[in-house]
Design a protein that fits this description.
The complex is a heterotetramer.
Chain A lengths: L1 H7 L4 H11 L1 H23 L31 H37 L1 H16 L2 H12 L3 H28 L2 H8 L4 H37 L11 H12 L5 H28 L6
Helix pairs in contact in A: 2-3, 3-4, 3-11, 4-5, 4-7, 4-9, 4-11, 5-7, 6-7, 7-9, 8-9, 9-10, 9-11, 10-11
Chain B lengths: L8 E12 L2 E13 L4 E5 L6 H9 L6 E10 L2 E2 L5 H10 L1 E4 L13 H11 L5 H14 L5 H4 L9 H13 L5 E5 L7 H18 L2 E6 L2 H7 L2 E6 L2 E7 H6 L4 H9 L33 E12 L21 E12 L3 E5 L6 H8 L7 E6 L2 E2 L13 H4 E4 L13 H12 L5 H14 L16 H13 L5 E5 L7 H18 L2 E6 L2 H7 L2 E6 L2 E7 H6 L4 H9 L8 H6 L1
Parallel strand pairs in B: 3-8, 3-9, 6-7, 7-8, 13-18, 13-19, 16-17, 17-18
Antiparallel strand pairs in B: 1-2, 1-4, 4-5, 9-10, 11-12, 11-14, 14-15, 19-20
Helix pairs in contact in B: 3-4, 4-6, 6-7, 7-19, 13-14, 13-15, 14-15, 15-16
Chain C lengths: L1 H33 L4 H6 L5 H10 L6 H13 L13 H36 L4 H15 L2 H15 L24 H7 L3 H38 L2 H8 L4 H39 L4 H10 L3 H29 L2 H5 L1
Helix pairs in contact in C: 1-13, 5-6, 5-9, 5-11, 6-9, 7-9, 7-11, 8-9, 9-11, 10-11, 11-12, 11-13, 12-13
The chains are: A mainly alpha, B alpha/beta, C mainly alpha, D alpha+beta.
Chain lengths: ~290, ~575, ~350, ~525
Amino acid sequence: MADVTAFKAGVKPRNHIVYILTENPVSIVAIAGFAVIVFAAIFGPLVAPYDPLATNVAISLHPPSWDHWFGTDQLGRDVFSRVLVAARLDLMISVSAVALSFVIGATIGSAAGYFGGWTDRITGRVVDTIMAFPLFVLAMGIVAALGNTVENIIYATAIINVPFYARVARAEAAIRRTAGFVQAAKLSGNSDLRILATQVFPNALPPMAVQASLNMGWAILNAAGLSFIGLGVRPPTPEWGIMVAEGANFIISGEWWLAIFPGLALMLTVFTFNLLGDALRDIVDPRQRT
Amino acid sequence: MKTSSLPLISVQNLTVEFGTREGPVTAVRDVSFDLARGETLGIVGESGSGKSVTSFALMGILDANGQVAQGEMTYSGIDLRRASPRQMRDIRGREISMIFQNPRSALNPIRKVGLQIEDILREHAVAVGGHARRQAVELLDRVRIRDPEKRYHAYPHELSGGMCQRVVIALALACKPRVLIADEPTTGLDVTTQKTIMDLIRDLATEQGLSTILITHDLGLAANYCGRIVVMKRGEVVEAAPVDVLFGAPRHPYTRALIEATPRRSGTVRALLPPDDFRHGQPDPKPRCRALSAPLLTVEGLTKEFGAEGSGFGWLPWRKGVETDKAFRAVDDLSFELHAGESLGLVGESGCGKSTTSMMIMRLLDPTQGSVRLDGEEISAIPSSKFARHPARAKLQFVFQDPTDSLNPRFTAARCISDPILRLGKLEGGKAVKARVEELADLVNLPLELLSRFPHQLSGGQKARVGIARAVALNPSLLILDEPTAALDVSVQAVVLNLLADLRAQLGMSYLFVSHDLNVVRLLCERVVVMRAGIIVEEGATDQVMTTPKTAYTRELLASSPEPPPTLGALEAAE
Amino acid sequence: MKSWARLRMVLGRVGQALPALFGVIVVTFILTRALPGDPAVYFAGPAADEASIQQIREALGLDRPLYEQFVYYLGDLASGNLGVSISTGQPVLEELARRLPASLELTLGALLLSLAIAIPMGVLAATNPGRPIDHICRVIATAGVSLPTFFTGIALVFVFYYLLGWSPAPIGRLDFAYLSPPPITGFYTIDALLDGDPETAMAAAGQLLLPMITLALFTLAPIARMTRGAMLQALGSDFIRTAKAAGLSQRVILIRYAFRNAMLPVITTLGMVFSFTLGANVLVEKVFAWPGIGSFAVDALVVSDYAAVQGFVLTMAMLFVLLNLLIDIAYTLIDPRIEANG
Amino acid sequence: MDRRTFLKGTGATAIGAGMLPFLKVLPASAATSGVVVVAISQTINSLDIHRKGTNRPSYQIAVNCYDRLVSFGTKTMPDGSLSYDYSVIEPDLAESWEATDKSITFKIRDNAVFSDGSPVTAADVKWSLDRAVSLGGFPAVQMKAGSLEKPEQFVAVDDKTFRIDLIRKSKLTIPDLAVPVPMIINSKVAMANATADDPWATDYLHRNTAGSGAYTIARWDPGQQIVYQQNEKWTSGPLPGVKRVVVREVPSQATSRALVERGDVQIAFGIPDKDAQELAAKGDVTVVGTPIENCIYCVGLNLNFDPFMDKKVRQAVAHAIPYEEIFKAAAFGQGVPMWGGGSAKPADVSWPQPFPYSTDIDKAKDLMAESAFKGGFKTEISINLSLASWMEPTALLIQESLAKIGIETTVDKIPGANWRTAALVEKRLPLHLENFGGWLNYPDYYFFWAYIKGHLFNSSNYDNPEVAKLVNETLHMQTDDPDYAPKVKRLIEIAFDDVPRIPLWQPNLNSAMAKNLEGYEYWFHRQLDATKFSVS
């Protein structure tokens, strides 16, 4: 097939991105959704029609109306404002968690993959140990043990994500360890650490970035799941998971808007991130697309 | 050799386009040729010439984004372009069969080879039930697979590459087709295997009265097995002629260049260059002779064993099959010397241990046993991880087999070349480094404007030059070349080989040239070492080994590598 | 010879899993001790005074230094004693033995359902890459994995039980009207069928349906993605071209050649998906009052029930190891190449 | 037993074999076939109330499967529902008793038998009460409240006569014998299953019952359900109108509500206020909401923290709390308001009674200005995660309101497991919500637990020698003692003024049940009493 692939070479990256987008219309939707989420995260508190914390028992549990698009909750707070403002916290938690696990996972993974031997064995055992846990329960345990704060939700989510990055980083580093350019760098007198930092790591980044964006959604779900069972977020701070959890008690009595809207926000956000992850993978490595 | 009867296959003005993101790309343009009954037709071209696409179009198995834009293809008068999918399926396998390169991946890895043959027999209703099985065994026997009853139950991974190709041939011939298309059937196989496979194809073709199309990049191979050759370049046919005519009097300059560029048992490096190159016909550059000096490199009792090594992730399913095999000796008690200024060829087929040897000398791999001395200094004792900063590092450099793989995709050409200078060079300041990089680019004939490009923006030959420039950046005294041209087209190979010869003359380096191809090694090396299964089978001056080989293995090696017939007067006339 | 090599490989895998298991034991032990709340206080019950709390602390061995507690814990483990859960008052081993089948029935059911949908979906997408059907499959799978299980569960209950009344009440494995069938496999549906009681089997299946769908939606994506990817890879490989060139029919190529090869990576993924699903169970079981080990663990964690949490995590870890082992074995049975790589 | 006929009980075979395949219809018709299904939200973790670690929901086993020497009477509430009557002590296993200053002597009913048919003897009673005071933990503490402390106090005079020697004469002793703890166990059965390590047969009684109560346990699937089977040999009252009661654990309260609304269960026991309010409004099911006696939801102000040492600050907080809004948003109007009392001096000894505070931000501000914390301060308001359904909205409203008088708060959710330790044992929560209720319905009993330094429910670390003295004097005093009322009024007056605990409201125990179900009775222990169930 050498003849055919020859034509594919030399495509410019930007055209490639444009191509991916036109090829896959869903990605455009994802990018639009992403823009909305980021907008909400940045400007949410500014554009929210009401103070998300202000109670007004006189109008508690009002269904969606022109004044309150998503209705009001038990304390008469505006659900729409709360959903909007919650975007920042939810994104903050998941982005921090993913960033943290990315850094840790990438470091230990690429070191394991590159050096092999004992480094690999030890990190391997650590990763195995984490993987052998039911991850969500591990996260619960960590938050419960460390204390009930947002930071600890971030740490817990980060820890259970580390194996995924470590694995990807390890695999990428292990492939590149024997690559010609790494050998060449050795011959050029580069130390192992320098090779790891300048040759192996940057080349392993794209697949890890894909993993990261795919994991974002999962991280959000995990964080929301933790606060669903009551761990982490302090009231009255709006957060989607806890809003769903609290709203769940109201569904049967007909106040469906309490759980449905934050649930939808959560779902759409995760959905957007997953689609974005897909698109990113298409851009980074078209063959991997699944 | 013209045939008077109707051609079996006729291709007229075939144009194939591929829809890509950049718009349609024409892979094959206006190609016409005929295949007569009983004829063996060679289609020869370098990569990107469209030779495979032509055959895929013929078989109707183009990728989803490819389509025949124009032209006619007929088989025995049947219009292949307008045949229904059902008709095409009947033609494929029963009338026209095809075999591919990489025989191992051409077989379903999780199905017994016998069953794979049976699948085809059943599909075309040639045989059913126990009869199909008997016939499958017969077919395996016919392609000279020993013990066919047992091999029937083998999975592809249990067979060698050559064996797999035999199975693929058995698949192709199962339904007694009238045409066999062999698409680079021996690429990736060792020369000795190549010969047996090609002989088998020829013999079977004769036995069954097959017409054959051999698609290859190797003119020598085509010359040895084909009656007529079609030469293609960038999707177009440049010349089509019977073998004797083509080699006797090539009409097209491209054909001529291709013929010239194919290394053979005699001739100079310069002669590989296209006739219109001013250096063509000049004498070879003379290496600065420093023979009789003290040995630059001494290898003694070098041994490498690979052991079964577990890894931390091993038990997890996604880490399947990462463990290495049980201990085996890749290199066994190897000793040789290399003098300053001398070039030594290290020749052998795949798995003979030649690359492992070069890696150990380069100190990229720790030997199990033995010593490597460079300029009298023992370097094998220094752990490979510590060697990076060792002063000997700069003296010892390497040119990699795959120019693409050996360049960091995120570095520009200039950055690649400057890497050793920055790490080990004594140069201070960005300007000096830049000047040196440009000097090196000049040295390897790399246009300066390419220095700012990334590897994927460079051609194969350009990448090879970047790799060579990087290797010579520190003025090493010994350069190890690991199949430096194996991934290149012959015309590019010719240029690179000349460049290497020039560099050696200019810089006075020693080369350790590792290759599977004696014809290539011969061009640059005074002495040659032939390896097999980790040990040296023959060693001597190149001329002597080429002309009067002492061992049967070397003889076999020489006899197996195909060689185009010498070009006759036409060439001289062109001068 | 072959089977010996396989056995050795399996034993090797078990051996390699041991350090991870030990790691799990250590981490769980430390984690549970770090949990807030004092089990002695909880154990002592309301209105207990300091003296009785101290008395219980001693009885539970909680007054000893950590390492000593750990040694005792290891000793207990070795003798198969997982301790008594303070929240349910039952020996943890009994509790897990009773609840594990519930979780497994749910998880396996969800996985089967998911496979039945995801694999055809993946194949369909792979055979039509880039076409609308591909995008639709992708969007469905992605939407599924984007659903927070706790939310899906609640929404499904609301619609199908409360509004429509189609599904039975979400109150565990079986409605009040039925008695659990005599335990053979521990899976109610199967046990009831074995007992010749299709009616109870139907009832159990009815209870199973909503939580199963909730979980299956979540696992759809990884399986569908993997199937699609593996299928695309298989379809693009050389042997498919050989098969095409040999004139094999589309059906044979798709099923016998491409699909069977594509299933190998899918099987590997299944292990991951399974352990993921078991984890996701935690929330789903909570929503559906499913008496599985997941809800048990959550409750135990909330009351700092050391023994229960440790027992749960250990079970899950062993299950995980066992599962990977099974997958390894399945893999070697399907893929003849494994042995060559030993 | 044939599994299919299991649920129908012995009396239901009339339905006939032809109906058997259609078990789906059974829950709706279960009531007619003598089965009542109850949904509870918590899990039952033991059948033995004496066992260490037995949780509250498990106390219902002691209620339904065991009898005591005496019991409380029953009264009809204004809404027509039944409630226990604290003022009436009725015979249970004891047919009569005589009290002197030194002892109480009980005569055990002749016909009283355990579910296995063996007669109830004084030896059984002694063994049971010995057990209650010997195993330590909660039962011992509860017994101690009735001055029942040592096995030596319990004497089996003869087979049918049992005497308790008193440490002191106390009004609490007899009522304390009517709480679930001093249940009478069949000591023959228990001792047959005791071992040297386990002389009190805790292991056996943890899994089995051996009582004389209205029901026996037909089946217990921990974490899922418990099935009561009518004890036909029950002698302490008229046999229940149902053969079986299935108590199903349904953790999700929303599900419980749906179940009772759809008729899949006959009672949803202990439903949230909101559901109670809405279901009552809908009228499809009967909703019984009974104010829990001697129980107050209140705000605790911890005197170990400087600002709350200042009475002005405490009073300011009490005036700043938005009672009405909390009552509406958190209690959905269910319960009895505990604010807005008329006078700073209590008119009577009724307890709980409204405190003389109501929302008045200006007054609160003034009080703050008079205090040493004019500029306000920062603190945490802690809530129990397990009780978030009312605590969280309450805390949020208080948080908002306190901000107006310069007190900045953050809401701190404490997991249920940690709550006891933090709030009651270590008493380290500065500002928190509290829900103590005493089983024995006397104001002094409440004060004993909640207002005395070092006592468990005094999470405010309140310490007042006068209160301690008054409680000490009144705790065992008979209520008709002329000193009693003035002293208790003084106690209440101090609580009004000092407000270490700011009452919000007296909560309701709500249950929703099918209209044809009768015999639901409220008890102070807030557990299901199925002994009077019948279906019309």
